[in-house]
Amino acid sequence: MRAWEAGKQADCYPHVAREEKERLFREIKDDERYTDYLYGCYECGICVSACPSARFYNYSPRVIAQAMAREDTDRVYEILIEDIWNCAQCFSCTRCPRQNNPGGLVSIIREVAVRNGIQETRDVLQGYSRVIYKVMLKGNQVSPDMLQPEFFADWGTWVEGFTKNMREWRRAIPLESLRGVTDASWRTDHKTLVELYTIWFETGNVELIREVDEGLYELLKNTMEEELEDAEDED
Ligand code: SF4
Ligand code: SF4
């Protein structure tokens, strides 16, 4: 149990300057969704009982709401570094009687962590670069080959078992789907892909990736720009 969960005041990450923690918290609060997602906290724990991640991880949506309602800069920083990737973004916590949205708060904090290129965030997302590549470039992420144990150590023995049965998985999900060129898997049509690329550019999501993975960013950007130029020429 962490010190602050036991009710003690702890100076989390004392080597990080207070100004930096405050700057990040300000960026979180400046998000226009913030005031819609946080109205204070009764500490009733209803969100915790609804939260699947709270069952399996050292994680609590109540802590997210409490730390923010109390404007506890140290705890918010700790959440940004350690907790946000444990949330499954299922939004079961929105049954909160105070009408908080802890999962929504996590979304905001994640965006701030990515936008600021926080090293711990880069480390966490490293294993997902192949997933991001597949989803953003091909419109789907079906590929058994992406599930490598070294990238998903926190999935435990399950992912090792998956790798051992790769032959069966490849038969179920054809290997060619890695490149999105098979009719046996779900294929995203070209018009939809162009729309997706446009949305990701316009919303700044492509740019966000630059902060966590420069190589992936260049790959996505160049391919998408080429496709968008071709689509413009065709119109
Ligand atoms: S959105 Fe996150 S915090 Fe909310 S219930 Fe789901 S996993 Fe828990
Ligand atoms: S359900 Fe709402 S009020 Fe209750 S602990 Fe969770 S965030 Fe606080």
Helices and strands in order:
Layout: H1 18-29, H2 34-37, H3 46-50, H4 52-56, H5 61-69, H6 73-83, H7 102-115, H8 119-126, H9 129-138, H10 157-164, H11 166-172, H12 190-202, H13 205-212, H14 214-234
Helix pairs in contact: 1-6, 5-7, 9-14, 13-14
Bound molecules: iron/sulfur cluster (SF4) (2 copies).
The site of one iron/sulfur cluster (SF4) has 15 residues, from helix 4 and helix 7.
Write up this protein:
The protein has 235 residues and is an all-alpha fold. It has two domains: 13-116, Fumarate Reductase Iron-sulfur Protein, Chain B, domain 2 (Orthogonal Bundle); 125-234, no CATH class. It contains 14 helices and no strands. It has helices at 18-29, 34-37, 46-50, 52-56, 61-69, 73-83, 102-115, 119-126, 129-138, 157-164, 166-172, 190-202, 205-212, 214-234. Helix 5 crosses helix 7 and helix 13 (205-212) runs antiparallel to helix 14 (214-234). The longest helix is centred in the C-terminal third of the chain and has 21 residues, at 214-234. The protein is globular and about 55 Å long. One iron/sulfur cluster (SF4) binds next to helix 4 and helix 7.
